[in-house]
From TrEMBL:
This is Cytochrome P450. It holds the Pfam family p450. It is found in: Membrane. Its cofactor is heme. Keywords: Heme, Iron, Membrane, Metal-binding, Monooxygenase, Oxidoreductase. Belongs to the cytochrome P450 family. It comes from the Eukaryota. It comes from Hibiscus sabdariffa.
Amino acid sequence: MLGKLPRQNLHYLVKRYGPIVSLRLGSIPTIVVSSPQAAQLFLKTHDLVFAGRPKIQASEFMSYGSKGMAFTPYGSYWRTVRKWCTFHLLSTSKVEYFAPTRKEHLGYLVESVKKAAAAGQTVDLSRKISEFIEDITCQIIFGRAKDDRLNLGHIFDKVMRLHGLFNISDFMPYLAPLDIQGIGRKLKGWSKLMDMVLEKIIDEHVQAIDPEGRNPHRDFVDVMVSMLNQPMNPQDEDQPYIIHH
């Protein structure tokens, strides 16, 4: 009923019924919020009530059972992971520390576009910007420039595409074992490949630590490795989990 252009048909439903519309996608109750005022109520005024995450097959396979910060349910684990990420990756000091790295890679991007323009060549800006983001991410998180042996960009591109597919298993969970579209099989395959790459990166960081526990580099992976055996705030009680779309 949503057709080939669901965003347009949702727009027509909103025009007919108002800025908050209740639907059922398969067996999953879904709320469509489409005005700034309504979005503020959900995302700011009552954000804790709607801070849960839906269980989707992609996050189960690609995020180690929905352990990633973007997919894990609201609770003590999510708060701890968010605190780690905010403090060790997104704090003001960390953002300023990596400013030269961002400036350097941005300079490479601009220079490459200038050269292509001077030569009258066509430039795929989407690909250029994607490579720019990948280079910066690798430098900040892994402590080194992009490594063609790991081919992270290709893996992440495939993973994001799989996340964006309409997966019947997410909306009719009882059909998930049948894997009608074959998406589950693809998710398992790419999950194994991504896991191998991440294990390789972690092993290299662990081996770089000298016998006294010192590391000449201090990127985000190093910080996470040093915190592997720390407790996840056992005194912090979980909040109720509310699923929403």
